[in-house]
Amino acid sequence: MTREALERSIIRLIRIAGILFFAVIVAFPFYWMIVSSLRPLEEILMNPANLGLDFRKIDLSAYYDVLFDHGFIRYILNSLYVSIITVALSLTLATVGGYAVTRLRFRGQSFMSYSILIIYMFPAIVLVIPLYVIFSHMGFRDSINVLILVYLAQTLPVALYMLRSYFKTLPLEMENAGLIDGCSRFGVIWRIIIPLSAPALASVALYTFMIAWNEFLFAFMFLDTPDKFTLSRGVVQLAGSVHLSKQLVMAASVLVTLPILLLFLFFERYLVRGMTSGAMKG
Predict the structure, then answer these.
(1) CATH of the domain at 146
(2) Cα separation of 85 and 14, whole Å?
(3) Residues of 238-247 as b/e, b for ≥16 C-beta within 10 angstroms?
(4) 89 and 39, same domain (yes or no)
(5) Which residues contact 148 (CB under 8 A, 6 or more apart)?
(6) C-beta neighbour count of 138 within 10 angstroms
(7) Distance between CA atoms of 40 and 47, rounded to whole angstroms?
(8) For the segment 30-74, what is each residue's pLDDT rounded down to a tens digit?
(9) Domain limits at 24?
(10) Is there a single domain that holds both residue 137 and residue 217?
(11) Can you give the pTM of this predicted structure?
(12) Which of 112, 134, 238, 280 has its CA 20 to 30 A from that of 198?
């Protein structure tokens, strides 16, 4: 074996070892969470350090208690409502706005195009106190519809940036052909831009859904009524109940994590395609 081949083999082994190491670090908390939620409570109390799972003793009672005794079905419905509405509004506004910034010519276009991400200069912890005061004075604070407005403000800049970058990669000739055939601007967007932008739209939808589904800070600050809690807010309330077992907290955490994980695995190819295609002219 030559020296160059030996070096390549060593580099390959180091790369594989590094990937496995980080994969174990990332996957271990999920494994521990799932195992802890499925083990009987007696085993957890008697041997909390045991990370094994006996499939003959799987206990699903924690999931039943979380869903039906602690109101997590309501929390799931609230999170779905907030996430789906946020995704729909963000996709609609980002598609129209991204197309306008990319294709149309108007005063202030350059400033708008390069200032889309200005809102991300301000961390959420800086914005939460002023928003808390404003919504409290307006009487809108304890409402999940306020969360939709806040999440839309959080996700729309990145959605606009991603779609604007992707729209630049689309051939202008197809849009001109549509306009010549009698399509309006909205007809071009609906019949040409949206079908061609499916990977980018899937990426934006997944990103927006993840933000709205997992967000905790604004939900914690704005929501007071338990019937209006989202999943992340409900998990924290459950974890703060000292008389409850950690088995329930782990089951609730699985309910929060599993939908996002499944969505990511399902839309992974669209996510990669949307981001890499948009980066070509970003």
Answers:
(1) 1.10.3720.10
(2) 45
(3) beeeeeeebb
(4) no
(5) 82, 85, 86, 89, 212
(6) 9
(7) 11
(8) 888 888 888 877 777 777 777 777 777 788 888 888 888 888 999
(9) 1-59
(10) yes
(11) 0.82
(12) 112
